[in-house]
Automatic annotation (TrEMBL):
Belongs to the SLC13A/DASS transporter (TC 2.A.47) family. NADC subfamily. It is a multi-pass membrane protein. This is Sodium-dependent dicarboxylate transporter SdcS. GO terms for cellular component: plasma membrane. It is found in: Membrane. Pfam families: Na_sulph_symp. It comes from Streptomyces hoynatensis. One of its GO terms (molecular function) is organic anion transmembrane transporter activity.
Length: 527
């Protein structure tokens, strides 16, 4: 009977997951079709109706309207919309092709490339999974439901500081599912509750997703939208925020956010059981399958360590020696983040895996590198296209004067006149837009608008610009808000009502922490 009960429970969970995925697909289909029609309509209306703007501003506003609608609705792939948008800028005469396409020579492009290649090597050689299982195997962690949730959250936060939130969740999600299944099977055998649809499993899944979304904020390379937003802020303000300054600014904020996240999820989804029987055996089995620490993992650690040293060297040099010291000046001029990322990533193609001997005992003519080009090209190239498009639109907004026009107009209508009120507005705008579209698109939409508003009301644009960038990574209420949300929602363990409730509460508290944290920390860090 108990076997039949477990089979029935598993079937119910599978059916629930399938039903939620079907609803999600229908929503995405309707959203996409509506956006596909509204985008060209908005483009035409702006061209016809915005007669008060000079042609370059009017044409750019029309392109921006089309791009924003298609990004929000995801009518076509985001990267395709990005390419189309910059091509339209040339076609309708916003700027010439050399000006428009020059954004793809930006240093941040190479920071993306190098970071993505290193993250790819971690995945190929299983280094990220080994780290996660090692943390879970620490004494007593997975015996306690509370400690398990917190441990998964801590891993999600720390890993996503260096690789994308989607990759982080894709790695932790199967481990979490496996633990839930192992523990649930033992629980039902002993006459206890089926934990597949429990409050504890909901908290675990949401912690994996939300932790990855907030953890990326620790470093500028933790999420693509942060590099996009930072680049836009730096371009429009003339102020450079290096790797160390970013970490000093946001790491304490993320620490407070993580503590708040643990309290919120465990309070709203209080675990039904006090002990997780079988979880330790499952983790031990998974670690045994990994085998010994390999050469590929060791080489990836070398490349990653090199990247961190090179990224932080200019900032640490400034703190220790001062900005005017000769070596520090040289590093700021020549050891950019893009250069550092490519140097570190190149190591993966130079360091060989363990070599063997060929026929007759002869050493093989060529040993395989840690990462092959065939493996490296599987990185997310679409994000790079999104970055280039966001940079183009942001630059053209300033060059054509559209940013100043929008900033002055919005400042007058919204009545914002202080740093605090504008920073709150930036956070709310980034949050609301990120609930319905990708984080990268959100940063590209919000930052070019917020910074000119700050300039129009004569306040420091750096703080609201950084807050808008960070808030673009929020979006905790809906499955469509972020890929991590969609992944855990598809498990069938996260009812929509619980995601809405938990996400709404954390949105409010998270925005408050973000705004207060940046306003307090920015002067201390010197940003």
């Amino acid at each position: 009977m108990k076997t039949e009960d477990r089979t029935g429970a598993a079937a119910s969970t599978s059916a629930a997951a399938s039903h939620t995925v079907d609803r999600q697909e229908r929503f995405d289909l309707i959203r996409g079709r509506l956006g596909l029609a509204l985008g060209p309509l908005a483009f035409a209306l702006v061209l016809v109706c915005a007669q008060g703007l000079v042609w370059e501003q009017r044409a750019l506003a029309a392109v921006l309207s089309l791009v924003v609608i298609w990004w929000v609705s995801e009518a076509i792939p985001l990267a395709v919309t990005a390419i189309l948008g910059i091509v339209l800028c040339v076609l309708v005469g916003v700027a010439d092709e050399d000006t428009v396409f020059s954004a793809f020579g930006n240093d941040t492009i190479f920071t993306f490339l190098g970071g993505f290649v290193i993250a790819r090597s971690m995945t190929v050689h299983g280094l990220d999974r080994r780290i996660a299982l090692r943390v879970l195997s620490l004494g007593g962690v997975v015996r306690s439901p509370t400690r398990t949730v917190v441990a998964f959250g801590a891993m999600s936060v720390l890993i996503s500081a260096f690789i994308s939130n989607t990759a982080t969740v894709a790695m932790l999600f199967p481990i979490g599912i496996g633990i839930v299944r192992a523990v649930s099977a033992i629980s039902t055998e002993k006459g206890g509750p089926d934990l597949h649809g429990s409050r504890w499993s909901t908290a675990l899944m949401l912690m994996i997703a939300y932790g990855a979304s907030i953890g990326g904020l620790i470093t500028p390379i933790g999420a693509p939208h942060q590099l996009i937003g930072r680049d836009l802020v730096e371009e429009q303000t003339g102020k450079t925020i290096n790797f160390v300054e970013w970490v000093l600014l946001f790491a304490p904020i993320v620490l407070v956010m993580f503590a708040a996240l643990c309290l919120i999820l465990l309070r709203l989804n209080r675990p039904e059981v006090r002990e997780l029987s079988g979880a330790e055996a499952y983790v031990a089995g998974q670690r045994a399958e990994l085998g010994p620490f390999g050469r590929g993992e060791a080489n990836t650690c070398v490349a990653f360590a090199l990247a961190v040293v090179l990224w932080t060297a200019p900032g640490i040099g400034s703190l220790v020696l001062g900005d005017d010291a000769g070596p520090v000046t040289w590093m700021h001029d020549h050891l950019t983040e893009g250069v550092a990322a490519i140097l570190a990533a190149s190591v993966l193609f130079l360091l060989p895996l363990a070599g063997g001997r060929g026929a007759g005992g002869r050493r093989a003519a060529r040993r395989a590198p840690t990462l092959t080009w065939a493996e490296a090209v599987k990185i997310d190239w679409g994000v790079i296209l999104l970055f280039g498009a966001g940079t183009v639109i942001g630059s053209l907004s300033s060059e054509t004067g559209l940013a100043d026009t929008l900033g002055t107009s919005l400042a007058d209508h919204l009545g914002v006149s202080s740093l605090v009120s504008l920073t709150v507005l930036a956070a709310v705008a980034g949050l609301v837009i990120s609930e319905t579209t990708s984080n990268t698109a959100s940063a590209g939409i919000v930052v070019p608008i917020v910074v000119p508003i700050a300039a129009a009301v004569d306040v420091n644009p750096l703080i609201p610009g950084l807050v808008a960038t960070a808030a673009a990574g929020y979006g905790f209420m809906l499955p469509v808000s972020t890929p991590p949300n969609a992944i855990v929602y598809g498990s069938g363990m996260v009812p929509m009502t619980k995601m809405l409730r938990s996400g709404f509460v954390f949105d409010l508290i998270g925005v408050a922490i973000l705004v207060a944290g940046v306003l307090v920390m920015a002067p201390l860090v010197g940003v």
